Amino acid sequence: xxxxxxxxxxxxxxxxxxxxxxxxxxTNRSLRERMTVTDGTYTSGGYNKRAPEAYxxxxxxxxxxxxxxxxxxxxxxxxxxxxxTPNETETxxxxxxxxxxxxxxxxxxxxxxxxxxxxxxxxxxFPPVSALNPDIQRLYQGNIFSIVRQxxxxxxxxxxxxxxxxxxxxxxxxxxxxxPLTGQTVQNAIRQYRQDRDPREPxxxxxxxxxxxAVDPDLVYFTTELKGNSTRFIPFNRGxxxxxxxxxxxxxxxxxxxxxxVWARESVLNLLQYFVxxxxxxxxxxxxxxxxxxxxxxxxxLDSVRRLIASSLTLGAGRSFLIQHSAGSGKSNSIxxxxxxxxxxxDKDDHxxxxxxIVITDRRILDRQLRRTVMAFEQTAGIVxxxxxxxxxLPRITGGRQEDHHLHFAEIPSHLRANARHPWQTLRHHH
Length: 431
Description:
The protein is α/β, with parallel strands linked by helices.
């Protein structure tokens, strides 16, 4: 009889994530090729296998992975810190890192790094927008992805998670896996997160992990914040023809896209660089409510943006596309994610594909949401420019130097909104 247990399902996922990496039992091949930019797909594999004992429950990280990454990519900064803390460099650094994650969250630390005693350390290197700098390419290759199965996360009990994924020693995704053939489905995984995973545990603290996944062979759900029984799980499914769920496949699991594509190394870095973001919640008047949100894209958002980016890389500028979003499906985030990535997109010759990206909205609230989302990713001050003075401001800004401003937000004037059937007609007439 075939092994249909939950652990076998878990082992299959692990084997695909380990493929081509240092712990691949079948091959000693080097890490697989990166993103295939012509079709937007990713290659799975290249993870490292780590034992549950490698995880430090107090620090909430894998110390060896953290230190290996730092020593490989930033040896000079490490020596600088070592001169300040000669007898306790590792302990000092790990405690400092854990404290920064606790204070600012994992996403902030991965994007901005940490400082300590005059030294500055990066905790991740993202894909460069061009290949002109070989040093950045080398650093990017130094990222360490790891998988831990049956991770015992608590100092209070022996509870364990089915799978946890790490980037450079920092936990990013937790996963509960269920198999309907053993009588449990994704709903049991959701119930387990809500009832058995104490959000007061350090690993489950808000912003420590970027997403928690409930998975079975047919369906995927996720959440970015555990709140006990009030935890809200969101579908992360591709759709079954014109309905919900995932299309069944005779060739494998219907949810294989999760570990074959979404959890692929380059996909994860792309998610962290361009999609996952935090913001302060605002009311309809733009006033902060005091609540912090962590946003992770739904599958249809991720898929649509990536397909348009891949098309732009292949076809260049000058094409027209239409994305149909239903109410409440996150169109403002999709627009913002797409606009930001188009603004830094380079062709195979390392030339920017677009000089300027102009986003036109017909609602002030949506315009504010879009600008807030894009500005969360802005690396250089002044790149994002709101158009608040009407049409006269647009040519004045876009006529300046390209490196100064190339992403603009404009609200359609009400008198033009009323006379235009389509946004592109408004843009043409208004321009």
